[in-house]
Amino acid sequence: MEKQRLLPDKMKILSGSMLKLIAVLSMLIDHTASYLLPRSFVLFSVAGKNIYLYHTMRCIGRLAFPLFAFLLVEGFIHTRNRVRYGVSLIVCAALSEIPWNLVHSGKLMCPSQNVFFTLLLGFAGLCVIDKLKDHPIIETIVLIGLGALSVAAKADFAVLGYAFIILIYALRNYEIFRVMTAFLLNMHWYALIAFLPISMYNGKRGFIKGPVLKYAFYAFYPVHLLVFYFIKLSLGHFG
């Protein structure tokens, strides 16, 4: 099957490591605004219309989840050991839960779950598609069940994030149609922008190699949430 291209090959200049870096930076910008900034701070005005710093940073942050979802799909396709990959997601989801709860509620318990649960459920869905492709009825039932679980668990992005991962995989050979899946996330054109760096991906791993950098990438999520919690605590955000 010939792949449908959004950009010519000469423009595919970003490695997987660069996509990870872009995703992490956009997430950090998004969370800085979400957890720390007042919504009323005006960055500048254009034609009498105020442009708010909070909104601008949140827009930049909308790139993060589509990039992480795409990297998850690439990891699923290319990993040598899917069991180990899945275990890594489980461990990171578990380790991130307390920092997630603390930064959102100031307590050890919170009704919602961090984004790694969404990624984990998406990964499970990809495994189901691969293993049960000859049993479409069972495959569909299990996929729907995983989607229902994302809703019941109140995972970040919930069923829309889960469905987004499944569609990113299903449309991996159709770059133009894949872009339209961004509307699932209810982010409009903000998420669409994420498909520009995705379409510039050259299929190479890049500079993030070896266990140290690999697990540092995973560790950044819970660590940065914990840092934001202590900042919010010091500012008296939890009353």
Short description:
This protein has 239 residues and is mainly alpha-helical.
What's the structural blueprint in terms of helices and strands?
Elements: H1 16-36, E1 42-46, E2 49-52, H2 53-61, H3 64-78, H4 82-105, H5 115-131, H6 136-152, H7 158-170, H8 175-179, H9 189-193, H10 195-199, H11 210-234
Antiparallel strand pairs: 1-2
Helix pairs in contact: 1-2, 1-3, 1-11, 3-5, 3-7, 4-5, 4-11, 5-6, 5-7, 6-7
Description:
This protein is mainly alpha-helical. 65% of the residues lie in helices and 4% in strands. The chain has one domain. It is built from 11 helices and 2 strands, in the order αββαααααααααα. It has a two-stranded antiparallel ribbon with strand order 1-2. Helix 1 (16-36) runs antiparallel to helix 2. The termini are far apart. The mean pLDDT is 90.
Descriptors:
239 residues; mainly alpha; two-stranded antiparallel sheet
How large, in whole angstroms, is the Cα Rg? 19 Å
Describe the sheet with the most strands: 2 strands, antiparallel
Globular, elongated, flat, extended or rod-shaped: what is the shape?
Answer: globular
Number of helices, counting only DSSP H or I runs of 4 residues or more: 11
Helix residue percentage: 55-70%
DSSP summary, beta strand count: 2
